[in-house]
Amino acid sequence: MGMPAVAIEADDLGLTFAPASAAPTVALEAVSCRFEPGRVTALIGPSGCGKSTLLQIVRGFLDPTRGQLRFVVPADGRMAVRPAMSTVWQAFNLFPWLTVVKNVAFGLDLAGVRRAERDERAHRAIAAVDLTGFENRYPRQLSGGMRQRVGLARALVMEPEVLLLDEPFGALDAQTRLVLQEQLARLVETSGTTAILVTHSIEEAILLADAIVVMTARPGRVAAYIDVELPRPRSMATTRDPGFAALFDRIYGLLRDEVMRAMVSGGAGA
After folding, report:
1. Within this chain, do residues 103 and 181 fall inside the same structural domain, yes or no?
2. What does the buried/exposed string (b/e) look like for 74-87 if buried means 16 or more CB atoms within 10 Å of the residue's CB?
3. 195 CB contacts (<8 Å, ≥6 apart)?
4. 161-213 pLDDT, tens per residue?
5. Total of domains in the chain
6. Residue 215: helix, strand or coil by DSSP?
7. Which pick of 18, 137, 161, 211 has the fewest CB atoms within 10 Å?
8. 114: burial class by Cβ within 10 Å (0-12, 13-18, 19+)?
9. E strand intervals along 84-227
């Protein structure tokens, strides 16, 4: 794409929801962390800790009530504009009346990309998620795992500088989730795209991420920033690595206390 790599910096971010008819809710408080270019950073924490809220601030859908979000070129520290982003949500969000290839090409169509290039890029993205041969199927003809792969292809086809993944496999059964975790691990390893992954799964965070931000119970703060130094490529075999077990135990120890706090205070949501 020829764009300089951009780091995303959260500096003392806070967000308080203050509805007119209810007490204010502090969703995020004093969150400072950095999302490095070309790396996958996972956000993990108990329900209600503000993971998805932080992702929406990064995306530009929410404004913080304190602090600052910055986009910086690491080489020289100068400020940059918001990079191009695509999001994969937990809900499949496909258009049921469009075929797979037309769902994948939808954003390109909106962007005015010529039909020949649009088709070529859509077919390449479909191949990247192993759905070649299903281009002319409709969402109702696909399994849940296949529908989520279409959602992933639709994000990848836009060639984003930053890929945001909000619980992308949360609605899937355990076996399908394992297969898609491996597939996504392969994709992020080969693409070099900057990615931010919101997940409840410690295993998913370790398999996919280069760094993990562990968040506290609401109000969300950063409890720990952990580098994942396990070798790539990673797969389910990685879960048998002693380094995996040590990381899992460390993150579980941090999260267990926070989850207990969230349960006591009645935290819910993401």
Report:
1. no
2. eeeeeebeebebbb
3. 39, 40, 41, 162, 163, 164, 165, 188, 208
4. 999 999 888 778 877 888 888 888 877 777 778 899 999 889 999 988 999 99
5. 2
6. strand
7. 18
8. exposed
9. 85-88, 162-166, 194-199, 211-215, 222-227
Which sign, positive or negative, has the C-alpha torsion 235, 239, 243, 247?
positive
The answer to whether residue 89 is domain-embedded is: no
Q: Two tokens at 269?
A: 């949501």
Q: Same structural domain for residues 105 and 203?
A: no
Residues 31 and 148 in one domain: no
Task: Write out the residue range of the structural domain in which residue 124 sits.
Answer: 94-159
To the nearest 10°, the Cα dihedral for 56, 158, 102, 129? -90
Round the average pLDDT of the chain to a whole number and report it: 87
* Per-residue model confidence as pLDDT tens digits over 33-50: 999 998 899 999 888 788
pTM of the model: 0.88
CA count, 13 A, side-chain hemisphere, 260: 6
> Residue 95 pLDDT > 50, yes or no?
yes
The reply to whether 176 and 191 lie within a common domain is yes
Are 185 and 203 in the same domain? yes
Pairing state of beta strands 25-35 and 66-72?
unpaired
Q: Rounded to an integer, what distance in angstroms lies between the CA atom of residue 195 and that of residue 210? A: 10
Residue 1 belongs to a domain: no
Which residues neighbour 107 within 8 Å (Cβ) at sequence distance 6 or greater? Answer: 86, 154, 157, 158
SS3 115: helix
